[in-house]
Amino acid sequence: AQKITQTQPGMFVQEKEAVTLDCTYDTSDQSYGLFWYKQPSSGEMIFLIYQGSYDEQNATEGRYSLNFQKARKSANLVISASQLGDSAMYFCAMRETLSGGSYIPTFGRGTSLIVHP
Amino acid sequence: EAQVTQNPRYLITVTGKKLTVTCSQNMNHEYMSWYRQDPGLGLRQIYYSMNVEVTDKGDVPEGYKVSRKEKRNFPLILESPSPNQTSLYFCASSLFSDFIQGGTRNTGELFFGEGSRLTVL
Fold this sequence. Notes:
The complex is a heterodimer of chains A (about 120) and B (about 120). Chain A is mainly beta and about 120 residues long.
């Protein structure tokens, strides 16, 4: 079973509109971290936002916010006021600390976002 | 500047010709990892290392080797490359779990290299 599920292979949004990219996760850890990364067409991986499992408030970074619903095991990325430069692949990732101390970041398959002018 | 450096960035090679992709980080990170990215499959972990001389298999280790003789370096070795290893490869590093020091929070995020696009003919 996948640990990170991104159900939207592709999303389209109008410039200046908000968009939500879905991410659900599966873990039995009590302490874990959730991340979103952006990969533009140039290929590099850009860290966007982080949410710790014990954080009580949803993380925000500029136009990015993470809608963290722990009971539902979801960590959706919300991009407000979309810009053309937001067109990219977006990956949700989770960091778990497994028994024995192994540290395993796991990635979803990604969502391709296209922002229309 | 804090960074993860991979080389080569682009490589075309032939089946069976051994190659090494180097990875170096200057952030004193304990954790280093290799991923491959293929269309529709996201990033899949090949190998990872928790510290010097400590390496372990990820999800797709077949056909790859790694070593961690120094903290900063984590090379990926393809002893006998095959066409199904044609992919985009990323090296990444991080500190371990999040903590707060001096008012600054470390999230344990992964820092990525720029990627190495490998084609095996």
